[in-house]
Design brief:
Blueprint (H helix, E strand, L loop, with lengths): L1 H30 L5 E10 L3 E10 L4 E12 L6 E3 L5 E3 L4 E15 L9 E9 L2 E7 L4 H4 L4 E5 L2 E10 L4 E10 L8 E4 L2 E3 L4 E11 L1
Antiparallel strand pairs: 1-2, 1-14, 2-3, 3-6, 4-5, 6-7, 6-8, 7-10, 8-9, 10-11, 11-14, 12-13
Length: 214
């Protein structure tokens, strides 16, 4: 009689132990759920100038995010020469327009080697298209007065980039991204310097960003 009872007790202990282990695994997996980029802010430095950006991220797979990134920056001509007058004011020789651009980057960010690399550093690639609003106004007017004379053009083209994402905590991450944009201006270029059109407002772009995760 004792042997069957001991056997049943042993079986019950095994079941309880297995159930507790399974529950612990489920609980651990629940709390180990990986946080993903949700939105972010960044500083942009490019061949044309510098500016600021803001992005929104939506996961589409375990290693890929759909992203919308809007940034605003100035556009300068590589031939611009800056001088200072006797009062210390800066003057750009031959400059006729202040030029700005506002690209909306629509594309995908993909983490490379997902699950194969331990640690908080994650290499990534990005690619997509960037419809861009190009704005310009007369340089011979004061900054605020010139706003009323602003004209617009459009640019459109692809981009691709590589970068590194560093997860600081469960709620924030830092990223550095180097991208190349090809953004030809439609309907002819825009002049920053007299008689010299800027026909492509793209080029290399370096972004330093802070992402908020959830």
């Amino acid at each position: 009689m004792k042997k069957p009872i001991l056997s049943l007790l042993l079986i019950l202990l095994i079941i309880i132990s297995f159930s507790h282990h399974s529950y612990s695994q489920i609980k651990d997996n629940k709390y180990k759920k990986e946080t993903r980029n949700n939105w972010g802010l960044g500083f942009v430095y490019s061949e044309n100038g510098f500016g600021f950006s803001s992005g929104l991220y939506v996961p589409v797979s375990r290693s890929t995010d759909f992203c919308l990134n809007l940034h605003f920056s100035g556009v300068s001509d590589s031939r611009e020469i800056q001088r200072y007058d006797i009062y210390g004011n800066s003057v750009v020789l031959g400059k006729v327009n202040r030029v700005y651009m506002m690209p909306l980057s629509i594309g995908l960010n993909k983490e490379l080697f997902k699950g194969d690399i331990d640690g908080n550093f994650r290499p990534m690639i990005s690619f997509g298209v960037a419809p861009t609003l190009v704005m310009y106004n007369p340089y011979d007017r004061s900054f605020f007065n010139a706003i009323a004379y602003t004209k617009t053009k459009f640019a459109f083209g692809p981009y691709a980039g590589i970068g590194i994402n560093y997860k600081q905590s469960k709620s924030t991450s830092l990223n550095v991204n180097l991208s190349y944009y090809y953004l030809p201006v439609t309907g002819g270029g825009v002049e920053s310097i007299e008689n010299n059109e800027i026909k492509d407002v793209g080029g290399l772009q370096l972004t330093f960003g802070l992402n908020f995760m959830k």
